[in-house]
Amino acid sequence: MVDAVLVDGQPLDAEWLSERAFQFGDGLFETIAVVDGSPCLWDAHMQRLLLGCDRLNLPRPEIDALLNDAQQLAAGQQRAVLKVYWTAGHSQRGYARPHPLVPQRIVSLSTWPYAQAPGDWAVRVCDHRLSENPVLAGIKHLNRLDQVIARNESDDPLFQEGLMLGQDGRVVCGTMSNLFLHTDGRLVTPEIGGAGIDGVVRQLVLATAKRLRVDIRIGSVTMADVERADAVYFTNSLIGAVRAARVGDWVYPSTVETHAVFSEVRRSCHAS
Q: How many Cβ atoms sit within 10 Å of the Cβ of residue 175?
């Protein structure tokens, strides 16, 4: 048991030090857009949370309890952001989880981060490369140091996102987004079996393409593919779908019409 703690030299209550989310990043999270009092794409977020539980061998949460918490916080909010955390609870020390494990659910509400809809992005190519682990790929676990390192390579305000590569140099995703290329009328998105996040808006793009009978390929993407594209899109639960004006030194023509799939995704991803 922790008896005492100093934070910047000042004594504070030590109870939070036993939280495994703090000690080891032992848990999961979901970032959810709230529009007109409703959590957007709730079912998709919960399906990914349950997948994360199975991957990390965490007990599954009661989704109804999480929804109740989320609805309480979201009520009356025109636009806001919910974060849902599901952690491995508390333990004193060591990597082994306690028996019995008592998970902890945390739901927070914060201000919507965009004063207006994001415009076309300028994207830099990150030097730091993603770690490869098929067990952790796809899910939103609490260990995000790859993204932290990559995001903090530059504080240039001209860039809104960073493009991340895998260890072998293939293109995987943005630091906080998934990537789609529109080339010669065809869509492609990187395969994320070894690294990256299976974003809920990525899932929505794939489902929308299927519904509209638009072929979309999931596979290996190179930097040459990115430079060859007619248009490049980045997606996540808050921005929806944003086009890139440039990636690195490569500039894309603004005259290319937005693909019908992404027009539909923009309309539906934040539907309340």
A: 23
Burial of 149 (0-12, 13-18, 19+ CB in 10 A): middle
CA distance 84 to 65: 11
95/41 same-domain check: yes
Total count of domains within the chain: 2
pTM exceeds 0.90? yes
Does residue 153 lie in a domain region? yes
Q: Same domain, yes or no, for 99 and 149?
A: no
Annotate 96-118 with DSSP letters as a single string: SPPSS---EEEEEEEE-S-SS--
Residues spanned by the domain of 78: 6-111
Final residue in a domain of this structure, among 111, 138, 158: 111
CB within 8 Å of 53: residues ≥ 6 apart: 28, 59, 60, 61, 86
Do 251 and 216 lie in a common domain?
yes
Digitized pLDDT (tens) for each residue of the chain, 272 residues in all: 677 888 889 888 877 888 999 999 999 999 999 999 999 999 999 999 999 999 999 999 999 999 999 999 999 999 999 999 999 999 877 899 999 999 999 999 999 998 777 789 999 999 999 999 999 999 999 999 999 999 999 989 999 999 999 999 999 999 999 999 999 999 999 999 999 999 999 999 999 999 999 999 999 999 999 999 999 999 999 999 999 999 999 999 989 999 999 999 999 999 86
